[in-house]
Amino acid sequence: MSDADADDLRAAQREHWSRAALGWTRRRPEVQRFAEPVSRWMLHAVQLAPGQRVLELAAGAGETGLIAAQRIGPGGTLVATDMAEEMLEGIRSRAEELGLDNVETRRMELEWIDAPAASFDAVLCRWGLMFAVDVEAALREIRRVLKPGGRLAAATWSGPEENQWGTAIQRTLLEQGHVDAPPDLDAPGPFRLREPSALVELARSAGLADVEVEPIDIVVAYGSVDEFLGVQRDLSVALSDVLERVDERSRTALRDGVAEKLAPHTAHDGSVRIPGRALGLAAGA
User: Structural domain of residue 18, as residue ranges?
Assistant: First the structure.
C-alpha cells in the first residue's frame, strides 16, 4: 500500500468513526453488557495499581478505560485517546457523570502515540488494533511508551464464523444487493487479527515480551431481533446508510433476512443469544 493510499484509508476511518460516535456513546450500556468479560480480562492482565498512568488507545466510548480510571484512584491518570474527536466528547461526558477527575482525553492515531518513551504503566486497546493501517507500527509505539515492566492488554476478534452476531447483517446486505462485495478479511477491519499465532508473532516482532493470546467467549443477548437491529443501526454506519435510503419493503426484507440467519440463536419468546469470541492479547515491556 502506498503512503497516499494509507493516508486516504486513515482519513476514511476518521470520517467513519466520527459519524459512528454518537451511536456508540448512546449505546454504551448495551455494548458494555456483552463486552464486560473482555474488559474484565484486560484489566486483570495489566495488573493495575493505585497511582499508575494508563493509556487507552482507540478508546471508542471508553468503557474499559473508565473502569481503569476508577481503579488507579485519584493519584493515577487515564489518558483516553481516539482518532475521532466526537468519541472523546462522549468519554469526557461520561467521566464527568462518574465524578472522575483523573481522565485526560487526546485525539491520537494508533501508529503515532504522542507521548514520551516509557511514560505509561499500562496500555489498553479493546477492538482497535485490527483497524490500524500498520499493526506492527502501532505495537512498536505501544512498546515504546510502556515503562520497563509495563503491561499491554488488547482485544481483537476471532474469525467471522465464531461471531455471527457481527456477520449476519453484512451477509444479508450482500445477499440483497445493498453492498457490492464481501469485506476483505485481511484489510483493516474487525476480523483482520483473527489468527492467534499471527497476533503473537506481530507482538513479538514489535519487541513485546511474555506474549500470550487467550480466547474470551461472550454472549450478545437482546430481547428480540428488532432490538438487536436497533442497536446495530446505531453502531453501524453501513447499516444506517442502507436503512435511510431504501423503502419499507426493503427494510422488512432486510429484517427478515437477518432473523433467518439468527434463527439458531433465537428462543421461542423471540429473544436472541448469539455466542461470540474475542482474542485477548497480553504482553509486557
Answer: 3-160+185-219+276-284
Average pLDDT over residues 217-237: 97
Grid look-up 495488573 returns: 47
List the CATH number of the domain containing 25: 3.40.50.150
User: Closest by alpha carbon to 48, among 152, 148, 130?
Assistant: 152
Please name which of 225, 222, 11 lies closest in space to residue 109, comparing C-alpha atoms. 11
pLDDT value of position 140: 98
